[in-house]
Amino acid sequence: MSTKIIVDSACDLPDEILDKYEIEVLPFNIHIDNQCYKDGIDIEVEELYAAMKEGKVPKTSQVSPEDFKRAFSRNAEAGNDCIYISFSAKLSGANQTGQLVAKEIRDKYKDVNIDIVDSKAGSVATGIIAYKAALLLEKGVSREKVIEKIKYWADHIEHIFMLDDLKPLVRGGRISKTKFFVGNILNIKPILCVKNGKIELLKKVRGTGRAISKMINYVKEKSYDLTEQLIGIAHADDLVQAEVLKEKIEELGGKIFCVEKIGSVLGVHLGIGGIGVFFLNEAEA
Question: Which InterPro entries match (predicted)?
Answer without folding.
Answer: DegV, DegV_C, DegV_domain_contain
